[in-house]
Each structure stands twice: as structure tokens, then as C-alpha cells.
Amino acid sequence: MSTTTVELPAQRLREQPPARARAARWRRRLVGWAFVAPAVALFLLMGAYTIASGFLLSFAKWNGFTPTWRWVGLGNYADLLYKDPSLAADLRRAAGNTAQVMVATPLLTVAVSLPLAVMLNSVTRLRAVLRSVYFLPYVTSGIAVYYAWRYVLAPDGAINLLLGSLGLGSLRQLQGFLGNPDTALPTLIVVLVWSSVPVATLLYLSGLQAIDRGIIEAAHIDGAGSWHVLRRIIWPLLRPITVAIVLLGVRDALHGFQIFLITTNGGPGGHTDVLGLMAYRLAFMKGLAPSLGHASALGWLLFAGAVLLTLANARLLRRVQ
Amino acid sequence: MKRFAYAGLIAYALISVYPFLWMVTGAFKTRGEILEGNLLPREPTLDTLIATWSRLHFLDYFLNSLKVTAMTVIGVLVVYSLASYAFAVLDFPGRRFLYWFFVALLFVPGITVLLPVVILEKNLGLLGGHLGLVLPFVNGTAPLTVLLLTNSYSSILRELREAARSDGAGEARIFWSVYLPLAKPAHITVAVLTAVPTWNEYVLTRVSLSNRSLFTLPLGLESLISSDVPSYNEVMAASLIIVLPVIALFLLLQRYFINGLVGAIKG
Fold this sequence. Notes:
The complex is a heterodimer of chains A (321) and B (267). With 321 residues, chain A is mostly helical. Chain A is 74% helix and 1% strand. In chain A, strand 1 and strand 2 form a beta hairpin. With 267 residues, chain B is an all-alpha fold. In chain B, helix 1 packs across helix 13 (232-266), helix 3 packs parallel to helix 6 and helix 3 (58-89) packs across helix 7 (142-154). Chain B is globular, with a radius of gyration of 23 Å. Chain B starts with a helix and ends with a helix. Chains A and B meet through helix 2, helix 4, helix 5, helix 6 and helix 8 of A and helix 1, helix 3, helix 4, helix 5 and helix 6 of B.
């Protein structure tokens, strides 16, 4: 019987001469870096320069054509926040509209998608078909569907005709729903809710399917009604999903403006102007005016807003994970 | 109770498809009939679709959209599956920092970097071409894609990796034959999440392309509505042409896509 012991791979590694171990370690590092290299290279090309130059530009005045920037320090930020009356007024109005979108859209999304998911979870027939139908708005969200909405909401569009034929003629909007200052923003919020319900419903549905049916049956046996079950059992269990939906909605409201650009371009009379749209206008619609620094500063204010809101929600976020 | 649920579900299904319904039926109406406001066309005609397709060089726009979308999806899958593999399983200095850095980019609003991207591309001579769209699109999907793919690679049993290693496979081989196939749903989710917004992208495309022959479908649609006498039957026909490929892609991949999305969010 031989006395040689079985050599474990780990031991062998430890007993390697230091030079070889070091070479192996470097090899491992190089392999890791090689895998991330394309992503880092692309970021250095497209991301690093744009973020850095955009940040610097927010402290300068420039119209995009002259060869040099004129440094103004925090001037652009001051102009936007209070110093330049026209910009500050625009900013305040756009911020007010953005805030309304940011509060109303997530709340309404939850209010629509949770009952929808509960109902969808309670039926077996047609579930797959309905799920696909509900998902359509998400898949097609973009310029084509926004034009379809514009058509439906127009003065002689389908919604006005529908209201007329239902005997609700008093609710009709003769300038169209997007043409009336009082209805334009609420209407766009409805369209935004319409396009964010799909993902929210899907997430709630997956959450519902993960809930143990036994708990709900036990509650029913103890005499709890459907409303009670929803309020006391399902709602608390789904809270992490609700938080995720609200956070996504808040982020989208701060970042997104494409629907506003296409459907109303901020009109009528600025009633649907939002911060993203205002930054877009300052950057691309001002011709020779030196407004690029303002656009950049507003972009960074939006970034700061997104970070602050997320930090404020960090406690909630941690509960999600 | 069941009946109540079905009534609610079907009511919302109608709301969900409402604008499509008008889009689809509008595309089959004539110029005169679109003004009447009835939902179903009295004499459905294919003329509007055919005329819109040919009048606006839609074939060119369609091929441009396809090219930009395909290049973006391929770029995203190649670049970020490699990086996410490294973040999930490899060990190298800077790994955690880089990972969180890429994810943190989620908070930079698109509008904040839109202007610098245009300036940069003008300096590099990329502005106005398709590559000038693809590079920022790929870069822009970094946060979400890295998050989803790293999550998905991390959930693959490490024993599989160790087994492949002891069979003599190198990292490239393990990545290619173990991780890629196992993370297929996550890749499909990423592909759909990239393809749909890229196909519909409007803002960067609007400010960077000026040569009509390079236009994508959304710009074609926009030039249709800003032409002298826009008629909603043609606008709806063009919208339908844009939307159909995306719906087809989604229906084809929805099983993987939904599972991948739900799995990714649940982490």
C-alpha cells in the first residue's frame, strides 16, 4: 500500500512557486478586462466625452456655431431657477406640469393595473389572449401610436363622436381634447397611464401567482370577504411590486417627453410643457440664440432630480430587493 | 363574480386596443371616408396602404429602420453579454466599481446627453449616418441590459462553470457553450427591449438625420403628417406599417420575453 496522499487542486495551487501564481493571477485579470473591454471602449467613445462635455457646457454660454464658449459659471443654473424671468417662468410651469404627471401617472397606473391583474388572475379562460392584448400598448408605444391617439382625440375624432352617440354630448371637446387647455394635460396623463399599465399588470400578475393560495383560502374560510382579502393580504404582499412600479413611473415622468413633443409640443399655451421638452427646445429649437448652456444646465437639473428622488426612495427600494 | 371579472377584463381589452382599432380601420378607408367618423370602412380599400407605401419610399425607410434596429440589437447583445459575464462570474480588480457605474447611468436622462452626443458626432463626422444612431443607441441601453444579463448569469449554478473548467474549457468556451445557451430567455428579453424602442426611436433620429434617403420609418411618418395636406387615412396606413413588424416580433417571442422580464424584475 502506497503512502502517497491525494493532492487536492487547492493545495497544488497554494504550493505553486510565487512567480507562476502571479502569472496566473494576471492572466485571470486580463481575461476579465478583455470581457469588459468592448463595453468600456464604447462608453469612453460615446459616454465619457458626452457626459463630461455636457457638464462643462452647463457652465458656459454657446449657440453651437461660434468656435469658443463663454464661461458664466453657475449663471445658467441661476437663469433657469430665478434670474431670467422668461426662463424661470417657463421652468416653473414645466416643473408644475412634470410634477402633476409624476404624481398622477404612477398612482393611476397602480389603480388600474392592480384590479386588472387580480381579475386576470381569477379567470382561466382567455387569460393568455387577454395578456397579449393588454401588452399591445407597451410594444407599440412610440410615434405611430401617438399619431393614432391624436386622430382619436381630435375635434372630429372618435372620442367626441363616441360621447355624442352615448348621449354625453356635454363632455365633448370642440377644440379636441388636446386643444383645450383644461383637458390637454389630463388627457396626456391618461395616454401615459394607458401605455404604462401593461408592464405594471404583468408584474402584479406574476406577484399574484407567487402568493400561496392557501393563505387566501384560509382567510376566506375565516369569513373574510374578497375586499378584505385584497386589502389585508394581497395588497401588503404586493407592496414591493407597487414600489417598483411607482419608481419606474417617476423616472419615466422625469426623463420622457416624446409623447408631449409629438402630440402637443407643449401646447396649448404651454399647458402641457414638461421639463424634458423644455430642455429639447432650448437645445434644438433656438437657432442662433446662445441657449445650449441653458439646455445643458436643465438636463443636469433633471439628473439631480432623478438622483434625489431615488435616494429619497432608497429605503423603499431596499425593501424591493 | 366570474362574470364581473370577465366584463371588467373585456372592457379594458377594448380600451387597450382602442387606438389600434381606429388605426387599422382608418388604413382601409378612402380620403373622403376618413372624415365621416364611422369605425368600420363601408368599402374597405387597399389603395390607401399601397399608395402610402409607394408614395413615401416606405420600402427605403423600412429597410433603414431594419438596418439600424438589427445593428443596435446585435451590438447590444455582443458588447453587454461579454461585459455582464465578466461582472457575474469573473474576478478582476475594478469589477464592482464598473458594474455599479454602468447601472448608475440609468439615472442620466436621455435629454441630458442628447445635445453633447450631437456635438460629439459632428466633430467625429458620424452625424447624419446610421452608425451615428447605432453607437449612442447601444451605449444608451447599457444600464438596463447590464442589470438584466448580470442578474441572469449570476443565477446560473457555479458548479456548471467548475465542471466545464475541469474539462479543460477556457473562459471564452464556457461563456459560449454554457452561459449563452442557458441565459437564452434573458437575451431574448434584452433583444425585444432593445428592438422595440429602437424601431420607434424618434428624437435622436430627428435631430441627426437630414438626408431623406437615410430616414427611418418614424421620420417617414412625420414627413407625411407635415406635408401640405395630411390626410388621416394615409397617416393611419403609415402608422400601421410601422407598428405591424413590432407586434409580429412580440407575438413571436412573447413567451420568452414575458418570462425573462418577470424573472429579471424579481431578480
